[in-house]
């Protein structure tokens, strides 16, 4: 654990929300001179009043460049892009710009399991946490799926370890952050509006292992050619996983009957309740990370025999007059929707649409064979309609939002069909978060019972 005296004395926290508020609190509690700048926050907000009481200097309502005067480091909210005027000016002045997760190494020296990837982060983070908990290990959950990493790190005991879900936004802003076990699930073109280009996005993801040492572990998907090339630069012990290769001397893999870790059979495939080929990759990564951190086979088996998915990620909503309803609102890109579609052999009515980031959806076409109808909504509705027509789908309806789409979609199903919300797009054109979008869909489904 690093001493706080090593950290800069005058800090700008740019953007509050959960991570910014947590960063400001921990910096103030450790004697730093903190300026908080947020355009949306109000001076009478509870969190703002608390920071002011702790000694923060507040600049709210706008982003004047003057807040950078005398600043030695900027801690920015992960969602704030690097072309933001203050961030861009800070970089021009050679002021370091980091994210809240970088502060973790000043708060704890306990083991950290860091998990990232374009898809599957939340499922894998949940699985690893549950596998370790069921094995009697003391684990704390942090990051996008839990509470801010700094809040968790402050309360960790000597026998605990942290499991943290990490986005590319967070990882681009690290300097010395180092997980003892890093998990890199996959790399797929995403968030290019934020990162600017694919190379920058890939490099941000690969920051997860840039500070690892020879006694650390890097669990990675050997079937992903981008990762295979990138991990050649790691100093950590490489532990590959694969749904296609026999890795009995190297890592996690499967045959027709079992999931293995090296040459040890861990669980029978037929006992796993989580559906989808993509989830099999998440399971392999989870088994590897859990075993490396002390999980028992019994603990792993219990989780895989009972865990049916996280909320909004291929979440089984229930049966509705013989139809199987799934909420996959967390599918915010085409790869996630491809994997959802490939998880089912039955006829599917697909509900899709959302924020237009400039991409097309041609990659979905080979995965639409089982789709009998589509309901499209949001900014990308015209693009998705074109994609559906190119795939030969005859019935394509437009909806005003997911609640409307649920009703229209249900009217297009027959008993035994799948009603699937898997938007392939971010939610921000109509909804604050993918969680809000998924909750509205689930509520709409329940009102039809």
TrEMBL record:
Coiled-coil annotated residue ranges, if any: none
Reactions listed under catalytic activity: UDP-N-acetyl-alpha-D-muramoyl-L-alanine + D-glutamate + ATP = UDP-N-acetyl-alpha-D-muramoyl-L-alanyl-D-glutamate + ADP + phosphate + H(+)
Top-rank EC class of the record's enzyme: ligase
Record-annotated Mur ligase C-terminal domain positions: 312-425
UniProt KW keywords: ATP-binding, Cell cycle, Cell division, Cell shape, Cell wall biogenesis/degradation, Cytoplasm, Ligase, Nucleotide-binding, Peptidoglycan synthesis
Segment forming the signal sequence: none
List of residues binding ATP: 117-123
Pathway: Cell wall biogenesis; peptidoglycan biosynthesis
Domain (Mur ligase central): residue spans on this chain: 115-290
Record EC number: 6.3.2.9
UniProt GO molecular function: UDP-N-acetylmuramoylalanine-D-glutamate ligase activity
Main subcellular location of this protein, as a coarse class: cytoplasm
Compartments it resides in: Cytoplasm
Known function: Cell wall formation. Catalyzes the addition of glutamate to the nucleotide precursor UDP-N-acetylmuramoyl-L-alanine (UMA).
Family label: Belongs to the MurCDEF family.
Protein name per its UniProtKB record: UDP-N-acetylmuramoylalanine--D-glutamate ligase
Species this protein is from: Oceanobacillus jeddahense
């Amino acid at each position: 654990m690093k001493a706080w005296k090593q950290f800069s004395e005058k800090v700008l926290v740019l953007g509050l929300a959960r991570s910014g508020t947590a960063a400001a609190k921990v910096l103030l509690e450790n004697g730093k001179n903190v300026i908080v700048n947020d355009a949306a926050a109000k001076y009478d907000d509870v969190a703002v009043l608390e920071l002011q009481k702790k000694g923060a200097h507040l600049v709210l309502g706008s982003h004047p460049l003057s807040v950078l005067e005398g600043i030695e480091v900027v801690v920015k909210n992960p969602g704030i892009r690097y072309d933001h005027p203050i961030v861009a000016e800070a970089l021009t002045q050679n002021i370091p710009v980091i994210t809240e997760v970088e502060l973790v190494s000043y708060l704890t020296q306990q083991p950290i399991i860091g998990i990232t990837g374009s898809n599957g982060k939340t499922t894998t983070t949940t699985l690893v946490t549950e596998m370790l908990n069921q094995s009697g290990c003391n684990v704390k959950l942090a990051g996008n799926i839990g509470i801010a990493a700094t809040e968790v790190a402050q309360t960790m005991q000597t026998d605990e370890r942290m499991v943290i879900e990490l986005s590319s936004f967070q990882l681009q802003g690290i300097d010395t952050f180092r997980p003892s076990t890093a998990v890199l699930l996959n790399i797929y073109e995403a968030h290019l509006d934020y990162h600017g280009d694919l190379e920058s996005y890939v490099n941000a993801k690969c920051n997860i292992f840039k500070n690892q040492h020879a006694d650390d572990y890097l669990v990675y998907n050997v079937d992903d050619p981008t990762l295979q090339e990138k991990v050649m630069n790691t100093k950590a012990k490489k532990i590959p996983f694969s749904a296609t290769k026999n890795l009995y001397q190297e890592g996690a893999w499967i045959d027709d009957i079992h999931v293995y870790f090296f040459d040890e059979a861990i669980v029978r495939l037929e006992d796993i309740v989580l559906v989808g080929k993509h989830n099999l990759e998440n399971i392999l990564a989870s088994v590897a990370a859990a075993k490396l951190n002390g999980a028992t086979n019994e603990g792993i088996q219990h989780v895989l025999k009972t865990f049916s998915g996280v909320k909004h990620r291929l979440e089984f909503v229930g049966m509705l007059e013989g139809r199987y309803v799934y909420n996959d609102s967390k599918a915010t890109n085409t790869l996630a929707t491809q994997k959802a579609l490939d998880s089912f052999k039955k006829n599917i009515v697909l509900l899709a649409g959302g924020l237009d980031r400039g991409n097309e959806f041609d990659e979905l076409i080979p995965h639409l064979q089982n789709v009998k109808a589509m309901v499209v909504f949001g900014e990308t509705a015209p693009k998705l309609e074109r994609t559906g027509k190119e795939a030969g789908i005859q019935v394509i309806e437009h909806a005003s939002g997911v609640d409307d789409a649920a009703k229209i979609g249900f009217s297009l199903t027959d008993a035994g069909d799948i009603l699937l919300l898997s938007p392939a797009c971010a939610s921000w054109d109509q909804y604050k978060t993918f969680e809000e979008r998924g909750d509205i869909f689930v509520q709409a489904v329940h009102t039809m019972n």
